[in-house]
Amino acid sequence: MTYELYYWPGIQGRGEFVRLALEEAGAPYRDLALVPEASGGGAAALVKILNASSLKHPPFAPPILKTRRQFIAQTPNILLFLGHHHQLAPRDESGRLWTHQLQLTISDFYLEIFSTHHPLGDAYAYEEQRAAAKRRTKDFLATRLPKFLGYFEHVLERNHARGPWMFGTRLTYADLSMAQVIAGLRYAFPAATRRALRSRARLCALYEQVFERPRIALYVASGRRLAFNNDDLFRRYPELDR
To answer: CA 66, CA 73: separation in Å to the nearest integer?
Structure first.
């Protein structure tokens, strides 16, 4: 079976968490964001799914993964599915729930990162909320960033006897997502993130090991992984990186 992934073209966004899981699993998939609209892809393909009145369980927003029988939306939900079917999550219920819990916490973290540059909402341009963004980012870098990173470093420390991952002896989709968040933070706040990671060696090691994995490294080198940019959810505004 070949999956179909629907997401907005031109950005990594939340779709990248799903792409990393699919790539690590070696699962065949068609990334509609990279397919020209003339060939049935692009934004038009996504909008068609969002507006389809025939779907029994309509998605609210992308990413959306089409399997043989259904459309699955919401990043943690898609990863819960892929983790179960592609050995990217523990087999026991307790382990699966813990991995899902970690992913939900990563999603909370991700939302707070986005809110640094758009604290008033994405209906306003960054330039319209610059003052609020500076205030929000100052608090984020001083309190929220160390709190989240400290939590995940502690999770890694508790599991260190079993390996470099957040749970058990094998990589899970939560490890992939954590590495993606660190990559995004290094793009958005290079100076602040460098300082924050100095005392968090296990997170640094997790990031390096994820992006050194053969399938992930091939994906990054393939040109299919889009670069971070300021139309995405991780954005670099040097004035905020204090």
So the answer is: 9
DSSP calls for 202-235: HHHHHHHHHHHSHHHHHHHHHT-SPPP-TTSSS-
d(C-alpha 150, C-alpha 76), whole Å = 22
Nearest to 99 by CA among 82, 117, 114: 82
Question: If you average pLDDT over residues 106-115, what whole number do you get?
Answer: 97
- pLDDT of 200 reads 98
Coil, strand or helix at 158: helix
- Only one residue has tokens 């995004």, namely 184
Q: Which domains does the chain have, with CATH numbers?
A: 3-85 (3.40.30.10), 93-240 (1.20.1050.10)
> Can you read off the two tokens belonging to residue 14?
């939340």
